[in-house]
Amino acid sequence: MSENKPRRRPIFSGLILILLGCLLLAQNFRPEMRVWEMFRDFWPVLLIIWGLAKMFDYFAARRTGDAAPPAFTGGEFFLLLLLFAVGGSLSFVDWAGKNSDMDINWGPWDQRYSFSEETVQKNVKPAATIMISTDYGDITVLPEDAPDIRVVAQKSVGGMGRESSAKERADQVKVEIREEAGNYSVRVADQRKGRRVTVDLEVHVPKQAGMDARTGRGNIKITGLAGSIAADSRRGDVEIRDAGKDVQAQIRSGMLQVSSVKGSVRVSGRGNDIDVSD
Fold this sequence. Notes:
Oligomer: single chain
Shape: elongated
Strand order of the largest sheet: 1-4-7-3-9-11-13-15
């Protein structure tokens, strides 16, 4: 008669409960940790912990003479499928939101907060060329009679967190105005640090200024400038009206509208609809 040795219980379930409990407790005391975003980025680490736990169970059973636990129980197999479904879905949503034209949110958990910031550069050269760039966000350029550059930045923060956490992430993204060899640049610094932060720029510039506006994902609208204009949007629409000199526009998708230009017009790239008049 063979002796039935007791089967060793797996420790993975206990490890997961401890880990989840620690994360949820930390979220209560440190909301800026953004547990869901951490899970989205690091969920494969659970598979590594799972594998290490299985190895520990196997060698511990050999050392004590107990029967090794099964490779997968029914509950563990279901948990594995759930882990791949949730982790893979969150990763896909994050990837699609950064690399496609789709407006993807996080469903009932998504909350967006908006914060405004104004930056001013006084006494600029009226006919200077101004370069504006942002990775995620619209650019609107408006002419002014004053010799100033005034930037009104609207920061929109999305994700699963509290307003205080959103404010902290928005503050990581700075709008800078710099003078470079007699010209000026308006740029959004550290935008990739503040994840899911969109920065829309409304830029008031001298009417005689030239313009070079670039956005990775967003629309560009420029109206009433006397200087030459260059616009480049990888994902978004471009609209240029009442330009006093030459216009260059490059688009990868979206619509292009150019009207009332006193100089030449050069268009490159591809778009869904192109309208050039006057």
